[in-house]
Amino acid sequence: MSTPVVLPGCLLEARDIVKSFGQTPALRGASVTVGQGEILAVMGPSGSGKSTLLHCLAGIFQPDRGEVWFDGRRLDTLSEAERTRLRRTAFGFVFQFGQMVPELTAADNVALPLLLNRTSRKLAYKTAGTWLDRLGLGDKGGRRTGELSGGEAQRVAVARALALTPKVVFADEPTGSLDSLTGEKVMDLLTGLARQQDATVVVVTHDARVASYADRVVMVRDGHVSADLGTAAAPRSPAAATATGPASARAVR
Amino acid sequence: MSVPLTLLGLLEREPSHGYDLKRDYDAFFGRGKQLPFGQVYATLGRLARDGKIVPGDAEPGDGPDRRRYAITTTGRDEVDTWLAEAVEPEPHLQTVLFAKVTLALMLGKPAEAYLDTQRAAHIRRMQELTEIKRTGPLVDVLLADHALFHLEADLRWIDLTSARLAELAEAVGTR
Prior knowledge:
By secondary structure, chain A is α/β, with parallel strands linked by helices.
């Protein structure tokens, strides 16, 4: 029988997840743990199963086999209604294309999940305003999201995800449709503000520069999770940007 | 990094003492490695000999740093030419990585495991550089960006080579 989550500090865990779509296996026994407050990047080529893993961890997909644990309890065996409630209250989501309601304003979009959680209208809009401010969009609250640039819309998505003060933010290719500098700004804000809130982040990306914002990087290949690729050490001094690191020195000169 | 051309470029801003040049070189281009005074004055001597800079009148005081140097038209032209030239696009990593992968395959050793190790090392370095970008001044951010893009290019090569290992093993083995 299954045992409760035992790893200290572990908030979210997938155990030996198998998930197929029709005849096509997406995950073939994927296991991963995510610590409380950790920022985890999941990398992998297209079709490796990385998005499916995120959807299973977030309770959007139910695995065919295996277990998902969140905060000490089984997630995959909860009813659809319970999982929906959990997604609304404890999880925030940022997808590649913001998935805003384009006819609504930025403030409406951020306030909407709060209103769904029965926050009062006044408080929901006040919170939305605070978060739009933090993301540098204080003056854009009244604009329809359909009229915003891609980078602005994605920052609204980050505001919407964090305004709920979620335990976990799930981000699936959050910078996939943005240019380098804009994508970097979004990642900087997402990870920086999540750290301030002590929110855990799971970000799925094929982009190593996006993954490098994470505390830890794992790779999904052929439906399995490989060993850790990188665990961030203490930052080196700025001079190390050109110091004789094994690979980087070459790259800088 | 070309020291003479960089010092010449710094002199194009305004006439300067050797000390000021060294200070600015260390701050912007030294990246933790200081330019020795001896090299500064030797370089200034050669630049003056070649007519690219001219020393001003000696100012009162002791030590070698009693002159302010000014750039000449010849010097300005040289800086312009240098700044307009493309740098040789060097294939940085392929030589080492390619040699390791190919040899591993030839010797029947685990090339994929090596590529995984290299991938992990690259990702860790990218995390460090990203942290530097988050906290460092803009000059460091620019250098870190450059390193990140190069490491990213290496990673793409590593991924593609991983996917081609079977094919590559065949090519290497049948030779």
